[in-house]
Amino acid sequence: MVKIKPLIVKIPENTKVTLEKNSAKVEGSKGTLLLGLPSDINVAVQNGEIVISRTGNEKKIKALHGLIRSLFINMFVGVNEGFKKTLELSGVGFRAQVEGDQLVLSVGFSHPVKFAAPEGISFAVSENKITVSGIDKQLVGQIAHTIRSSRPAEPYKGKGIKYEGERIRRKAGKAKAMATGAK
Q1: Which fold has domain 7-80?
Q2: What residue ranges of the chain have pLDDT lower than 70?
Q3: What is the 3-state secondary structure (H, E, C) of 159-183?
Q4: Cα(140)–Cα(120) distance, rounded to whole angstroms?
Q5: CA 60 centroid distance within chain
Q6: Per-residue pLDDT at 141
């Protein structure tokens, strides 16, 4: 049988970890996050480190072992530094503005598109960039994806919403019109 090695994650300074029966609570300078723990994974706090071990050697339990370790690391980064995603608007007349805790987009529809910020998420707009920030990595990514999917960048002119640094694969227009120079 293969030896099951526990995974160790160091707890950063100014971070408090509280373990209960089926959950873990991480508190830091930016806020508090909760994590539900599966029954096949054992978590313990020892000497300023979190020791994560598993009860078996099945494929599902191995996957959970690594997942829980990654989730703890993301929680530590989130409660101390936070996460952010930046989106870019491109198109004539496309605008974004923050009204209270809502993001209001004018992206070529007959009506403005509004997104309410869930608890722990904040929006910021400067020029043609929208910044979604918060302490929960999964929630920040989900909200950014929802905003982007309201008007994704199209491949012909590149108008729409895209992630910062994302390359939009461009397509040529109609081949016949390009070749003959027709109007």
Answers
A1: Outer Surface Protein A; domain 3 (3.90.930)
A2: 1-5, 176-183
A3: CEEEECCCCCCCCCCCHHHHHHCCC
A4: 9
A5: 24
A6: 96
Task: Return d(Cα 43, Cα 16) in angstroms, integer.
Answer: 15
Both tokens of 111, joined, read: 């009506």
Strand partners, 49: 10, 46
Q: Is 0.70 topped by the overall pTM?
A: yes
Decide if 7-80 and 83-163 have a common fold.
yes
DSSP three-state, residue 116:
strand
Helix 59-80 / helix 137-150 crossing angle, nearest 10 deg: 90
- 10 Å CB burial of residue 135 (0-12, 13-18, 19+) is buried
- 133 Cβ contact list (under 8 Å, min separation 6): 82, 83, 84, 85, 121, 122, 124, 140
CATH of domain 83-163: 3.90.930.12
User: What residue segments make up the domains of the chain, in order of their start?
Assistant: 7-80, 83-163
